[in-house]
Design goal:
There is one protein chain. This protein is α+β, with helices and mostly antiparallel strands. The protein folds into three domains: about 50 residues, Molybdopterin biosynthesis moea protein, domain 2; about 210 residues, Hypothetical protein af1432, CATH 1.10.3210.10; about 45 residues. A five-stranded antiparallel β-sheet has the order 8-7-6-5-9. Strands 1-4 form a two-stranded antiparallel ribbon. A hairpin with a 5-residue loop joins strand 2 and strand 3. The longest helix has 27 residues.
């Protein structure tokens, strides 16, 4: 048997003992064949080592060279000229730095603890109609939210959590965090802010009633499967409606978060006057998180691409005050940041265009500036560095 760190483990090895998280949760039982997914989960849960079957390979003893065999020292190689990093490498390095930081490891642990609490609580509510411990859930989200000093830091952390396989729970947690941001930008009172956070956390609980093979299908959905997915708001409401003491806005959000102000949403096709305010806020957070997540058919979109998509039809579908506040704050969050354009050039955002938030004025390394609102539509911000 060998005790190996996750980075030393190879796919196909067999666990000689159960693989446990630092909190004692079992990731895999004894005898499990190691897969790439399991190695990633070990890293995400900060597992220090696993005991695997087999003996350590023998390494030959080093041969000491004889006097005659000692070579003459070679001259030191000339220093290689420094090659400036490409902007793609710069972006990758930033993400890697975040992922390697102690702050991210702390955030990661708290994030997974919150997901485990959600699983336990939601499963008990769905299968046994147990009351949902809102205080415990709210505390876990608040801890994550308050752990970061700036909105950019929080988004950095969420971006690096995209490998989480529990898509429904991770999405709900992200939407709760983003909804809480929007609530703060709207200057909601603390009680309302907490209710909005819980509404975001439970908005997709109905998806847990959808068969996994439909919910996680990598290809295109059939009409029947899409109709099944569209039932999740009603299924969520049915789960929450009998929860005594649960604020009605949380229940309405589960039911209405796919409704749109122009009547184009589902399940009922409600218009602005009939949609709950918190459902309209969570709808924005829901779409933002979905767009910035990786999909089988596309890479994750950068914040300015998402802002552009919202600008195209968001003012008809989403409540004006909420969507304008959200877009302005998201754009302002990245003021002075380095970004990469669609043609590969790096630059810095120097001024926002209030009538075209996705297309600010940028400054290149040679100090020349470009107003993207007057540039070709083929030129846009592709990544935040």
């Amino acid at each position: 048997m060998r005790k190996l760190e996750p980075k030393q483990i190879e796919i196909g090895m067999i666990a000689a003992e159960p693989i446990l998280t630092p909190l004692g949760q079992e990731l895999a039982p004894k005898g499990t064949e190691i897969t790439r997914q399991l190695i990633n989960r070990m890293k995400l849960y900060r597992v220090e080592y696993a005991v695997v079957e087999g003996d350590a390979p023998e390494t030959p003893a080093p041969q000491m060279p004889t006097q005659e065999a000692i070579p003459e020292p070679e001259p030191a190689p000339a220093p290689k000229p420094k090659v400036p990093k490409t902007h793609a490498e710069e972006s990758k390095t930033h993400s890697q730095k975040v992922a390697a930081s102690s702050e991210f490891r702390t955030f990661q642990l708290t994030y997974f603890q919150a997901i485990e609490q959600m699983k336990t609580t939601f499963t008990a509510a769905i299968e046994h109609n147990k009351p949902i411990d809102t205080e415990m859930l709210l505390a876990s989200v608040s801890d994550l939210f308050m752990s970061r000093n700036t909105i950019v830091e929080l988004f950095d952390m969420l971006y690096n959590m995209r490998t989480v396989s529990d898509a429904v729970y991770a999405h709900c947690l992200n939407v709760a965090l983003i909804s809480r941001m929007i609530g703060r930008w709207l200057k909601l009172e603390t009680h309302d802010l907490n209710i909005l956070t819980l509404a975001g956390l439970m908005h997709d609980i109905g998806k847990l009633k959808i068969p996994e093979e439909v919910l996680n299908k990598p290809g295109a959905l059939t009409d029947e499967e899409f109709a099944m997915i569209k039932q999740h708001p009603k299924l969520g409401y049915d789960i929450l409606k009998n929860q005594n003491g649960l604020d009605s806005r949380i229940k309405k959000t589960a039911l209405m978060h796919h409704e749109r102000c122009d009547g184009s949403g589902y399940p009922t096709g409600l218009t602005e006057d009939f949609i709950d305010n918190f459902a309209m806020i969570v709808a924005i957070a829901d779409v933002y998180d979905a767009m910035t997540a990786s999909r089988a058919y596309r890479a994750p979109l950068c914040p300015f691409q998402v802002i552009s998509n919202f600008e195209k039809d968001g003012f008809q579908k989403y409540y004006t005050r909420y969507i304008l506040t959200f877009l302005k704050q998201i754009a302002a969050t990245y003021q002075s940041n380095r970004v990469m354009l669609s043609d590969g050039r790096g630059c810095k955002i120097v001024m926002l265009n209030q009538n075209a938030l996705s297309r600010p004025i940028v400054q290149f390394d040679d100090n020349t500036c470009l107003d993207l609102s007057t540039a070709s539509k083929d030129l846009y911000i592709k990544a935040v560095l």
